Amino acid sequence: METRRTKATPFDRSDRGDPLAMALRALTAPRRYIRPWYLAYLLLGMVTSGLLPVLLPLAVESSSGSLATVAYVMGAYNFGLLTSPLWGLLAERIKAYRKLFLGSFLLTAGGTLGLLLSRALPSWLLAAFALGAGSGGAATLATLFVVDFAPRTEWEPRIGWLQTFNATGQVAGLMLAAAFAGGDFAPALWVCVTLLLLAMAVGGIGLPGTPRAAAGATEHAHRHIDVRALALFPKLILPSGVDLHFYHLNLRGLRRLPQTLGTPFGRFLLSWFVFAFAVAAFFSYFPLMLAKGYGIAAHTSAMVYAVTAALGIGLYVLTSRLTDRYGPGRVYRAGLVVRIVGFGLLLAPFLIAVGGRALLGVAGFALIVVAWPLLSVSGTDLGASLTPFSEGAAVGLLNAALALATALGIVVSGPLVARWGYATIPATAIAGLAISLWLGTDRRGRGAPETSRPGPAGADGERPEEQAATAPRVTRT
Questions:
Q1: What is 19-452's CATH number?
Q2: 3-state SS class at 427
Q3: How far is Cα 435 from Cα 452, in angstroms, rounded to an integer?
Q4: What is the Cα 8 distance to its own chain's centre?
Q5: pLDDT digits (tens, 9 = 90+) for 295-337
Q6: Is the dihedral of CA 228, 224, 153, 104 positive or negative?
Q7: What does the alpha-carbon distance between residue 459 and residue 461 come to, in Å, rounded to a whole number?
Q8: Measuring CA to CA, which residue among 36, 239, 241, 44 is closest to residue 140?
Q9: d(Cα 198, Cα 164) in Å, to the nearest integer?
Q10: What is the pLDDT of residues 245-281, one digit of tens each?
């Protein structure tokens, strides 16, 4: 029997503490929470999470003939994503939400066009950075149109639907990438530009006009959003598995980093960083690696990615149930083990003579992709449970760590892959994931602390002791 303290939040009391109830409420009343401009976010997912992860490495390698160049271009894209908080700060300051939102699609289209027309590394890097900055800006502004314009009680279902639209676009984009992956890449990139311009055209339909004063300033939005409820929805899945939203990646959270030193949360944050750093190279090279290392055509790997990503959508809710039953630490470690097994299958043909290289490649790839819902949901829950400060700041640090580790991991992998070949990708991934698994287990071998779920943050983003002292006790068996 376990005793914990809880306190109801001032909004949506019936669903607080039961994210699944909130998700079901959102799914059974879609017309209440969906707006026409969500279609623009779906089209963005088709391009940045579906088409480009498959086509961009193939196109750059075909034009440059250099594996290191692929890493540098994909790294520039991920560094562009790190500008996401700046879009939010700019929108809050100049109040030009609509112009910035539509402009982000234009910047993304311009970056894609630059990649299409460029022939030299410096121009590729600039175009890739613009592409990442534009797509990160679109994600940021989309979230702001919820937290700055909608009632607080509707934040989670609206953002959840945004994530679902984007994930649906990702699956559709991967299927479309399969049709283009075997031939000339120029038509496919022109399709990306067209889809982004179409997103810009439909992105202005139904946008709210005036921010709600009652919603509060965006710098405080992360204190009120139920991050565990949002973990049930598919997220913006970038090539590395990073999900970037403004309410997650916030500058306020970065200032809390020194407070994590020597805490269980700090150890988990390091585990999170190492895991993202270790697998970053794979998601930049996978179409090339699977084609040249395992004989799997790029259109086949795109279809495998699409199918496993679609299956993974259903795992978000299932993972929430597993987390409630077994604890987020165990589920997190299970997700790391699944990825270790996946990379082990990819490494095996490089170490021993085995038949069925293509089958091992497909199985390993599928396990790597399908492990993300396990890691995403349990990581969000575990981080929020272990945090020594507000949940929003903690999740901000987790996503900042993912984004930075991914960008650095991609750039570092370039010379390694160019020097030693594709075998370095699964080898370094297994080593990094093993370290991450060790960091995610406490020194006494009992696993990461299975802390009880904290109560809501106070007005200043903390959980003050005086609130805990007056909160009612809830007994859970």
A1: 1.20.1250.20
A2: helix
A3: 26
A4: 29
A5: 998 889 889 988 888 887 778 878 878 888 888 899 999 999 9
A6: negative
A7: 6
A8: 44
A9: 19
A10: 544 455 555 666 777 778 888 889 899 999 999 998 8
